[in-house]
């Protein structure tokens, strides 16, 4: 497990984002056990307090649930998992839109390009993929 | 909590430490940052009573320092260089009542050290690991480290960083000095910046990232104008 | 208890240079003895060929030779040097052992005590080795001369009693022995105090040893001056008391000063 951290963003939020992505992609299933805080800190070479903060944040966002003295688990709440996915897509689109707006592209041209490139990407995935 | 209150130190005609006050919490990693020659080591040595301050007080959990509870790891060996690692351990066991041989054995194992090696046969990185192991095995509440990463190889650095995020360091307060913050950017809870013998910034690292979107290096650039 | 343990470490660290010193000393003395006997025998033979020698050789003739006096001088110098070195060694280089000693959660005076006792042990050890070596040298001396039919005069005890360098080392009475030991301890204490003052002046320049010497000089000079001032007005018995008190005063002030600097001011 390797996260390329950005030094200018809070590390705990980057850890949260990393787990959101894994949940959205289904790499972490609903109800699955999370790695221990200690393991995670050692593996990511970050401060254990930061991991603790990330877990607290994920609990507050209801991404994980922790019972006393048990390892944390990914939430089984489908709504939450769906919400994560929407959130991630929205965020990515927002970043994309912001950067493309600077280039003054018409909507038609943009849609056209997206269709072509995104389609190609999918074809490539299929031809090389599993 | 380690409290450094209004300490001062002169060296020849230069006031090396003008007036310095800061705190380091238990269970947190506090980093004392400063360019070379800004008196970081002097502050650590002063806290340990190795070069007494001219003025000011140091309190550990509200009391004068107790060497049973605070350990210091300098950036060089503190044993005669012809000593073996075993001899260093034997000495520590004799005079440091809290020295924990089991913990030391575990660190020797994790760092892949050979107890029969002589100190003068070791690389700088290995020597740093020996120093660190001797410090941690004192099972201190607070650990003070002087430039633990300077001039050592990348793999030793990695091993040391890993140790800081492991259970061995749990609940200990760590005060670390460095001028190469990149090595421990993600380990630090709190940064204390020193410039011209004064504290110029003292901040929670994650807060500064969150509120200002700045890295530690960004803040350093502002302060030191490098 | 911890003092004894630390003493063990100090003694262990001093053993190697100490054994080298002792070996050199004894070997040098026996080499000189060999040369002395060889040349004396030759000379005796020479005289016998032309007439009758009209003198006897004494052990004091051997002890009075420059090489023997020199060997004692070297041993004394080595002990003085070691009194400095036992501290300065621990401040040397990047591996400053003094840091480790000062960081010990122990009373700092055990460092002082261990070094002082180590010095005393070395000096007493040197005296005993020298005594044994002298006995052996005497046996070699007299049995060789006997075998060469050269008459030997004077006893072993006489030779030592009247030797300038040896009589202070092997005094006739136990009280004298104690007085000598006190004087030796005092010299070591002065040296230790000097090192501790010098090492406490953090702003280490050429001035720091000078300042340390001046401080120590004042400490030594004040009672001495006072004593000379008093000397003419005192009777013999009173003088002994004053000198005794003076020595005790010196000792306690020096230890007090060392303790102050070691615990409060020493800088590594």
From TrEMBL, chain A:
SMART domains to which the protein is assigned, alphabetical: HTH_GNTR
SUPFAM superfamilies with a match to the protein in the record: Winged helix' DNA-binding domain
Pfam families to which the protein is assigned, alphabetical: GntR
HTH gntR-type domain boundaries: 9-77
GO molecular function: DNA binding; DNA-binding transcription factor activity
Record keywords, A-Z: DNA-binding, Transcription, Transcription regulation
Name under which the protein is recorded: GntR family transcriptional regulator
InterPro entries found in the cross-reference section: Tscrpt_reg_HTH_GntR (IPR000524), WH-like_DNA-bd_sf (IPR036388), WH_DNA-bd_sf (IPR036390)
Automatic annotation (TrEMBL), chain B:
Alphabetized SMART domains for the sequence: AAA
Keyword Nucleotide-binding belongs to the record: yes
Protein's name according to its UniProt entry: Multidrug ABC transporter ATP-binding protein
Residue ranges of domain ABC transporter in the record: 2-221
Keywords: ATP-binding, Nucleotide-binding, Transport
Keyword Nucleotidyltransferase tagged: no
Matches recorded under Gene3D superfamilies: P-loop containing nucleotide triphosphate hydrolases
GO molecular function per UniProt: ATP binding; ATP hydrolysis activity
InterPro entries for this protein: AAA+_ATPase, ABC_transporter-like_ATP-bd, ABC_Transporter_VariousFunc, P-loop_NTPase
Any matching Pfam family: ABC_tran
PANTHER family linked to this entry: ABC TRANSPORTER ATP-BINDING PROTEIN ALBC-RELATED
UniProtKB/TrEMBL annotation, chain C:
Key words of the record: Membrane, Transmembrane, Transmembrane helix
Domain of life of the source: Bacteria
Regions that span the bilayer: 18-39, 59-88, 109-133, 177-197, 209-230, 242-262
Protein name: Uncharacterized protein
């Amino acid at each position: 497990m390797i996260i390329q951290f950005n030094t200018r963003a809070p590390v705990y939020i980057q850890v949260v984002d990393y787990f959101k992505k894994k949940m959205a992609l289904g790499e972490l299933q609903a109800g699955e056990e999370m790695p221990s805080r200690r393991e995670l800190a050692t593996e990511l070479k970050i401060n254990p307090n930061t991991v603790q903060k990330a877990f607290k944040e994920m609990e507050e966002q209801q991404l994980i649930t922790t019972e006393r003295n048990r390892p944390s688990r990914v939430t089984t709440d489908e709504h939450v998992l769906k919400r994560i996915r929407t959130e991630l897509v929205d965020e990515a689109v927002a970043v994309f839109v912001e950067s493309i707006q600077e280039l003054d592209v018409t909507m038609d041209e943009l849609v056209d390009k997206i269709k072509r490139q995104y389609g190609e990407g999918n074809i490539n995935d299929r031809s090389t993929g599993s | 909590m380690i409290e450094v209150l209004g300490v001062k130190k002169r060296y020849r005609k230069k006031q090396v430490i003008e007036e310095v006050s800061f705190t380091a919490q238990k269970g947190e990693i506090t980093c004392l940052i400063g360019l070379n020659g800004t008196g970081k080591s002097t502050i650590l040595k002063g806290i340990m009573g190795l070069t007494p301050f001219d003025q000011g007080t140091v309190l550990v959990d509200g009391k004068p320092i107790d060497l049973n509870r605070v350990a210091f790891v300098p950036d060089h060996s503190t044993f005669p260089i012809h000593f073996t690692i075993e001899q260093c351990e034997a000495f520590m066991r004799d005079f440091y009542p809290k020295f924990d041989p089991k913990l030391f054995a575990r660190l020797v194992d994790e760092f892949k050290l050979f107890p029969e090696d002589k100190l003068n046969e070791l690389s700088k990185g290995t020597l740093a690991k020996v120093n660190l192991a001797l410090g941690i095995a004192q099972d201190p509440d607070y650990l003070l480290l002087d430039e633990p990463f300077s001039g050592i190889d990348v793999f030793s650095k990695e091993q040391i960083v890993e140790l800081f995020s492991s259970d061995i360091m749990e609940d200990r307060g760590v005060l670390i000095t460095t001028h190469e913050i990149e090595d421990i950017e993600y380990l630090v809870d709190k940064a204390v910046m020193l410039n011209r013998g004064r504290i110029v910034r003292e901040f929670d690292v994650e807060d500064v990232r969150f509120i200002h979107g700045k890295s530690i290096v960004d803040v350093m650039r502002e302060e030191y104008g490098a | 208890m911890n003092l004894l343990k630390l003493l063990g470490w100090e003694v262990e660290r001093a053993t190697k240079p100490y054994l080298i010193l002792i070996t050199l000393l004894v070997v040098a003395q026996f080499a000189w003895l060999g040369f002395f006997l060889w040349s004396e025998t030759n000379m005796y033979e020479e005289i016998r060929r032309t007439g009758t020698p009209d003198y006897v050789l004494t052990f004091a003739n051997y002890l009075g030779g420059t090489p023997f006096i020199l060997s004692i001088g070297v041993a004394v110098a080595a002990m003085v040097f070691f009194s400095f070195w036992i501290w300065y060694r621990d401040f040397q280089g990047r591996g400053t052992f003094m840091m480790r000693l000062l960081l010990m959660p122990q009373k700092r005076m055990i460092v002082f005590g261990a070094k002082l006792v180590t010095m005393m042990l070395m000096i007493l050890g040197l005296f005993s080795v020298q005594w044994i070596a002298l006995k052996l040298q005497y046996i070699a001396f007299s049995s060789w001369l006997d075998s060469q039919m050269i008459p030997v005069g004077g006893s072993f005890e006489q030779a030592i009693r009247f030797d300038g360098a040896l009589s202070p080392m092997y005094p006739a009475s136990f009280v004298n022995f104690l007085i000598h030991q006190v004087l030796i301890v005092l010299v070591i204490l002065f040296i230790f105090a000097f090192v501790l003052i010098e090492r406490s002046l953090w702003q280490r320049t050429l001035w720091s040893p000078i300042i340390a010497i001046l401080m120590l000089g004042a400490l030594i000079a004040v009672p001495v001056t006072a004593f000379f001032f008093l000397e003419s007005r005192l009777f013999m018995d009173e003088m002994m008391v004053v000198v005794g008190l003076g020595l005790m005063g010196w000792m306690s002030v020096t230890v007090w000063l060392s303790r102050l600097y070691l615990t409060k001011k020493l800088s590594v």
